[in-house]
Design goal:
alpha+beta; Aminopeptidase; seven-stranded mixed beta sheet; 9 strands; 32% helix; globular; signal
């Protein structure tokens, strides 16, 4: 009995000394060569997700010189992903914890989910496309994730996201930028908030 009591006290002591950490919110910037949006997926504690959609035609102030403007579609989405991250964080005051660049051609080839210009023409088609991609995901792909994306996530992040999407679709809330088109290729935000 004394032994059980001692173990119980040790466990209780460890719980007192070990701080309980709430699951941190991850805000993941997602982009890819053919995508018309830069997305920031904000994973919530209840396994739901807020998805912030930022059109690549949006013109924003540079992070290092706010007086200069540059459309997001003029950045190399793969090579300049950290600059895109800085610009979005600064303008929208939206902290980004991780970045993901999707190799859309490899995803299309390996998962057999084809896309064309209409696929990414609006959120409805884009969401339907990624729903098809998610259905093709296999746990073994976690170990070959670098074939499909470049990121700064770790293996436990991959597994957590795999579980969220494999066990059913999480509740996703979409947030949009209000903007004004100047011509067919360039638009300006009306403010730095999402609706």
């Amino acid at each position: 009995m004394k032994k059980i009591y001692t173990v119980f006290l040790m466990v209780l002591f460890l719980f007192i000394l070990t701080p309980v950490h709430a699951k941190d919110t991850q805000n993941i910037l997602i982009t890819g060569k053919h995508l018309p949006y830069i997305m920031v997926a904000s994973m919530q504690e209840d396994d739901s997700m807020d998805m912030y959609l930022i059109p690549t035609s949006l013109t924003l102030p540079l992070s290092q010189n706010p007086q200069q403007l540059r459309p997001l579609n003029q950045y190399d989405k793969q090579e300049e992903i950290n600059r895109i991250r800085e610009v979005i964080q600064r303008f929208f005051e939206l902290p980004i914890t991780n970045t993901v660049y999707l190799h859309m051609d490899t995803i299309q080839k390996d998962m057999g989910v084809a896309y064309n210009e209409q696929t990414f023409s609006d959120v409805k088609h884009m969401t339907a496309y990624f729903a098809k991609v998610v259905k093709q995901l296999k746990l073994s792909m976690i170990f070959h994730a670098s074939d499909y994306l470049e990121d700064d996530l770790n293996i436990s992040d991959y597994y957590a996201f795999y579980k969220i999407f494999h066990d059913g679709y999480p509740k996703i809330r979409y947030h949009y930028v209000n903007y004004l088109y100047i011509d067919s290729t360039v638009c300006y935000p009306l403010h730095n908030q999402f609706s």
